C-alpha cells in the first residue's frame, strides 16, 4: 500500500486491499516550513523569541517564498506569514485578527488591541484611574518591560521607524497635558507619585519645567 508508510497513513486500515508493511507514519516528516521563512520581527530589528523562534533568523530573504514547500498540515497553529501587511498582527490576548486600534509596547513586538492591553494592565493597578503608570510593567506574553502603552491605528514591530515615531509623538503629547497629581498641590509642596519619571507636564507658574529629584515611587 502506497499510503501506509506516509505520515498520513492509510485511512482504510485493516480493510485495505493492499499489503501494509513496516511502521505507519515511518516516512520522514519534512522540516517545518517556518524554518525556511524569515522571521518578520527579526527582519524588523529584533525578535524576543531568540533561538527558540519558529522562524528563520537571517538577513537573506527566502527565494522559495511562493514556490516553496506547501504548508505542513501537522502544524495548524503556525501563524500565517503570507501577508505581513494584514492580519499578521493578531491580538495576543483575545486573538482578534484585526484590532481597530493597537496598543504598542516599547519593550517588545507583541501586538495587542488597545483595549485588551489596557484592561490587562489595569487589572494589576490598585488605582484604576491611573492609565499611565510610571512604574515599570511587563508584556503579558514575554515579560519585556515597558513603562506605558502607546495607542496606534497600525501595528509596528520593535525597531520599525514608525513605531519609534509613534511612541515619541505620543510622549510629546502627554508632556503637553498637565499632570493631575502635580496640579493638585500648589506652592512649595509639589507632588507627583511618578516624580521625574512622570510623562505628564510638571510646570512652574512662570511656565518653566518643574523637575523632581525623585523618580517613580
Ligand atoms: Zn492501505
Ligand atoms: Zn524570530
Ligand atoms: Zn485583543
Ligand atoms: Zn512581548
Ligand atoms: Zn506627574
Automatic annotation (TrEMBL):
ZnF segments: C3H1-type: 1-23, 33-60, 173-205
Pfam families named in the record: zf-C3HC4, zf-CCCH_2, zf-CCCH_4
UniProt keyword Cytoplasm, yes or no: no
Biological processes per GO annotation: protein polyubiquitination
Region feature (Disordered): 60-79
Protein's recorded name: RING-type E3 ubiquitin transferase
Gene Ontology molecular functions: ubiquitin protein ligase activity; zinc ion binding
Stored Gene3D superfamilies: 3.30.1370.210, Zinc/RING finger domain, C3HC4 (zinc finger)
Keyword Magnesium belongs to the record: no
UniProt KW keywords: Metal-binding, Repeat, Transferase, Zinc, Zinc-finger
RING-type domain segment(s): 91-143
Domain spans labelled C3H1-type: 1-23, 33-60, 173-205
Amino acid at each position: 500500500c502506497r499510503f501506509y508508510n506516509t505520515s498520513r497513513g492509510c485511512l482504510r486500515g485493516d480493510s485495505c486491499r493492499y499489503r501494509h508493511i513496516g511502521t505507519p507514519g515511518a516516512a520522514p516528516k519534512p522540516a517545518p516550513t517556518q524554518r525556511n521563512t524569515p522571521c518578520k520581527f527579526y527582519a524588523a530589528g529584533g525578535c524576543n523569541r531568540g533561538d527558540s523562534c519558529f522562524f528563520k533568523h537571517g538577513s537573506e530573504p527566502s527565494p522559495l517564498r511562493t514556490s516553496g514547500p506547501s504548508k505542513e498540515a501537522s502544524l495548524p497553529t503556525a501563524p500565517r506569514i503570507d501577508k505581513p501587511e494584514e492580519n499578521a498582527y493578531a491580538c495576543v490576548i483575545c486573538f482578534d485578527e484585526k484590532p481597530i486600534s493597537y496598543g504598542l509596547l516599547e519593550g517588545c513586538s507583541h501586538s495587542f488591541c488597545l483595549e485588551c492591553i489596557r484592561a490587562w494592565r489595569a487589572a494589576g493597578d490598585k488605582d484604576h484611574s491611573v492609565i499611565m503608570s510610571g512604574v515599570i510593567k511587563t508584556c503579558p506574553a514575554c515579560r519585556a518591560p515597558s513603562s506605558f502603552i502607546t495607542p496606534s491605528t497600525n501595528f509596528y514591530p520593535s525597531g520599525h521607524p514608525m513605531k519609534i515615531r509613534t511612541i515619541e509623538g505620543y510622549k510629546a503629547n502627554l508632556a503637553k497635558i498637565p499632570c493631575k497629581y502635580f496640579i493638585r498641590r500648589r506652592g512649595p509642596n509639589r507632588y507627583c507619585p511618578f516624580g521625574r519619571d512622570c510623562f505628564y507636564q510638571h510646570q512652574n507658574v512662570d511656565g518653566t519645567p518643574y523637575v523632581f529629584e525623585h523618580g517613580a515611587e
